[in-house]
Amino acid sequence: MIDRIKNSVLYIIQNRLVHHILFWMLSFYTLVHFFALQEEISKIDVVYTALFHISLVFGVYVNVLVLIPYALKKEKYVLHAIGFVGLWLAVAYLNEFTFEHLSDWLTPDYFFISSYEISELLKFSIVYLGLSTLLKLSKSWFRVIKAEKKLVELKQKQSETELLALKTNIHPHFLFNNLNSLYALARKKSDETPKYILQLSDLMRYMIYESNDEYVELEKEINYITNYLELQKLRFKNKTRIQYIIEGEFNSQKIAPFLMIPFIENSFKHGGLNQLERDVIDLRIRIEDNHLEMNLRNSIPKHTSREIDPIGGFGIENVKSRLDSQYPNKHELNLSKQEDEFTVALKIDLNHEQNRR
Predict the structure, then answer these.
(1) Exposed site from 137, 197, 214, 338, fewest CB < 10 Å?
(2) Which CATH superfamily hosts domain 191-356?
(3) Per residue in 107-127, pLDDT tens?
């Protein structure tokens, strides 16, 4: 019941016809008191005010329905200026014409003459034309603000959906592979087993619980990457040369999660294929002056049983989309594929995210 009443009230408030009726009611109330010869409103005051509104109604709706949509909103400013001045004069002269000629036909029982000079009528005209223009533009402005807000919400939902899709894409095969590696360690009764279990636990905690916000602490994202690389070292031990260097200081910087890991994962997917001494994965991450720079290089095997494209893939396209959405004009991404090597160069301005908060 309450929701039904609320919806009815909102419908009335947002109804354009109601807006117009209220505008002219307020206008009539104001002018009838302004024109009244005595304190008490008489019938002749009402009739005079009604006649006076003929030119005002004409001017307002020509302005709102013709000049603004077909000239001003289409940025035809000269045409709009000419039309506005012409309409301004037309309203004043129409008012004079109403009382000099139309009143005899519309209200034969009353005798009226124009009570105002053209200079005074021009003042009434400019007030109503200016007010109607401002109201129309302000309504359009509110629509733009509403549309922009809706667009921001849609972009945020898109980003959340892309992040969820990316996390879902990372989880299954990575967890399966590392559990196999840990199982092998456990069977050997290796002393390193607890360390790797803890790393996998930290990594999964971050993926499931700590990376759900639009932006996360950079230090946690780097720790996640470090744990990922250490677990991959365990998996690719004696098969792929994995090197990584992370430089710089972590203060209070934040970053959108999982922007770097798809490229790193991609390097293992296409570079860690057990091609003996050729297999190399080299990662360098540097943070300086709130700018992050990642350079990644991995070898491409010459002989493989399937055709691969290190540049493509769901995860990479997902990251490109999120970079464009969350760091517009504040990032650089260069992917390069050569005969035996694939490189990634990513730069992100972390100040951009801090300015948005």
Answers:
(1) 338
(2) Histidine kinase-like ATPase, C-terminal domain (3.30.565.10)
(3) 887 777 767 888 888 998 999
